[in-house]
């Protein structure tokens, strides 16, 4: 066990710069308000937690104005954005903006917005929320999920957006003359 007092202190910008070298997926977390209006936010920390029971999680800054709405709903859909959806990521990340303006989506069976054109989505009921430092960890129990397209995912790396192409897929494509 590491002694908290002996752990080194880092300047926030330096910590962010180094951790930016770990690529993350870009996920839009969505739900609906009681009146049916969609709400959403972008996270870069979505991950699988457990297969049995099926649990996933994401981290969100304590200052988020969207998180209380998601917690009140008690459910969310994690939409893995595709590489051609950087515009959607930027729109969903803006504070006070009409995040769903010009966005096509449909309701999941659990009334959460599934965004059109995503790579995959996972519909969840909130299982647990844990306060950790300046963030909250939200754990969701998977209710439904699917791979929605064969598109490449949008990734965040070193302060910028990009995509991922499998080296195995590149090799296969070169042999098939694609």
From TrEMBL:
The keyword Oxidoreductase appears for this protein: yes
SMART domains per record: Flavin_Reduct
Domain Flavin reductase like, chain residue ranges per copy: 19-163
One MF annotation (Gene Ontology) recorded for this entry: riboflavin reductase (NADPH) activity
SUPFAM superfamilies given in the database record: FMN-binding split barrel
Alphabetical list of Pfam families matching this protein: Flavin_Reduct
Keywords: Oxidoreductase
PANTHER family assigned: FLAVIN REDUCTASE, FLAVIN-DEPENDENT MONOOXYGENASE, REDUCTASE SUBUNIT HSAB
Family: Belongs to the non-flavoprotein flavin reductase family.
Protein name: Putative oxidoreductase
Organism: Gordonia soli NBRC 108243
UniProt lineage: Bacteria, Bacillati, Actinomycetota, Actinomycetes, Mycobacteriales
């Amino acid at each position: 066990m590491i002694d908290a007092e002996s752990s080194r202190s880092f300047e926030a910008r330096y910590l962010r710069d180094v951790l930016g070298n770990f690529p993350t997926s870009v996920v839009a977390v969505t739900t609906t308000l009681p009146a049916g209006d969609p709400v959403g936010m972008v996270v870069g920390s979505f991950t699988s937690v457990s297969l049995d029971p099926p649990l996933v999680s994401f981290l969100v800054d304590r200052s988020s104005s969207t998180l209380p709405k998601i917690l009140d709903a008690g459910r969310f859909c994690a939409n893995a954005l595709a590489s051609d959806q950087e515009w959607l990521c930027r729109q969903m990340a803006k504070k006070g903006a009409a995040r769903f303006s010009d966005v096509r989506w449909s309701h999941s069976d659990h009334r959460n917005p599934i965004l059109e054109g995503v790579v995959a989505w996972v519909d969840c009921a909130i299982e647990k929320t844990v306060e950790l430092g300046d963030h909250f960890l939200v754990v969701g129990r998977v209710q439904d999920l699917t791979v929605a397209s064969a598109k490449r995912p949008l990734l965040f790396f070193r302060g910028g957006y990009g995509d991922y192409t499998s080296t195995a897929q590149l090799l296969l494509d070169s042999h098939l003359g694609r």
